[in-house]
Design a protein that fits this description.
The chain is α/β, with parallel strands linked by helices. The chain has twelve helices and 16 strands. Strand 13 (222-229) and strand 14 form a beta hairpin. The chain is flat and about 60 Å long. The structure holds adenosine-5'-triphosphate. Forms polymers.
């Protein structure tokens, strides 16, 4: 029998997730590729490559090809995408899948075209590209096809997308390059400034997740971290508190609050009324940052809820859209 296993892909700046029709989410890997510096030969992809970040010898580089919500390195993005599509085994001699991809919102039309080509070269029969906030909202369980307002704030690695949706489309939205990566950078900067200590990205991400908060006094914890003392050049251990991480995250978090406020201000009043009733839904890994929901609730004065399984919303949404491709996806590039 001829049948094709359609697949949905969340091509995120931090993580790639793949949903195969009938099988659910079958792949969840960091968007990292390790290459040999001289000839750009791919050595490892995904988790294996992530373990190398900050620990590679000079001739090997661990690259995040989709940094900051844009495609920083196209060839590597393409290799990574093909590797992951091949790995889920959705393609066989008798079936070619349809692929629905959610890519970062800020990519150019040239980049969109290239992503489509990469997916086609990986064996897709048809390739559809969809907007991330739409998939996030659907995956979070919102019924965006009714004539009522739904607001979603998706805080990923490279971008935060804020959108109000109604009748299956985005009504007002904003996309800013301020998300998880920038939180990590802010922590690195803070520690460098306050303690003259250099720490790596993985340490700062760990601080953010394990003891971080964006609410003053919201969390009282501490963690020992190691880095390189800028004065002596030697390794040094210090203890960092939740309050310090909250201080470090003040600026990046206030940029997100401002963007959400601006979207609400531009939203037609009838839809705003719906949002007051239903609340704002948070998706993406940033939704897991301690206190984000409470802070947004105070600032926006509307209920704010973290979606179930926030890091899976976009990929789940692509899976659900695959079931209704003809109805929900208008754009076929
Ligand atoms: N428990 C947590 N607390 C705080 N941040 C977290 C937590 N878990 C994950 N994150 C952050 O979430 C981010 C990744 O989220 P996600 O996988 O949704 O991004 P993405 O979809 O790849 O990115 P984008 O939407 O920008 O393309 C990372 O910055 C990670 O540090």
């Amino acid at each position: 029998m001829m049948f094709s296993k359609d697949i949905g892909i969340d091509l995120g700046t931090a993580n790639v997730l793949i949903h195969v029709k009938g099988r659910g989410v079958v792949l969840n890997e960091p968007s990292v590729v390790a290459i040999e510096s001289e000839n750009r030969r791919v050595l490892a992809v995904g988790e294996a490559a992530r373990r190398m970040v900050g620990r590679t010898p000079g001739n090997i580089t661990a690259i995040r090809p989709l940094r900051d919500g844009v495609i920083a390195d196209f060839d590597i993005t393409e290799s990574m995408l093909r590797y992951f599509i091949d790995r889920v085994g959705a393609r066989s001699w008798h079936s070619r899948p349809r692929i629905l991809i959610c890519a970062p919102t800020n990519i150019t039309s040239v980049e969109q075209k290239s992503i489509r080509e990469a997916a086609e070269r990986s064996g897709a029969k048809d390739v559809f590209l969809e907007e991330e906030p739409k998939a996030a909202a659907i995956g979070a369980g919102m019924d965006i096809f009714q004539p009522s307002g739904n607001m979603v704030v998706d805080i990923g690695g490279g971008t935060t997308d804020v959108a109000v949706l109604s009748m299956g489309d985005i009504v007002t939205s904003s996309s800013l390059k301020m998300a998880g990566d920038k939180f990590d950078e802010a922590i690195i900067k803070y520690i460098k400034h306050k303690y003259k200590l250099l720490i790596g990205e993985r340490t700062s991400e760990e601080l953010k997740m394990s003891i971080g908060t964006v609410r003053p006094g919201g969390r009282i914890e501490e963690m020992d971290i190691r880095g390189r003392d800028m004065v002596s050049g030697l390794p040094l251990t210090i203890t960092v508190t939740s309050a310090e991480i909250q201080e470090a995250l003040l600026d990046p978090m206030s940029a997100i609050v401002t963007a959400a406020k601006q979207v609400l201000e531009r939203t037609p009043p009838e839809l705003s009324a719906d949002i007051i009733d239903r609340g704002v839904i948070l998706t993406g890994g940033g939704a897991l940052l301690h206190g984000v929901d409470e802070l947004l609730m105070e600032e926006l004065r509307v209920p704010v809820l973290v979606a179930e399984d926030p890091m899976h919303c976009v990929v789940k949404g692509t899976g659900m859209m695959l079931d209704h491709l003809d109805k929900v996806v208008k754009k076929k590039f």
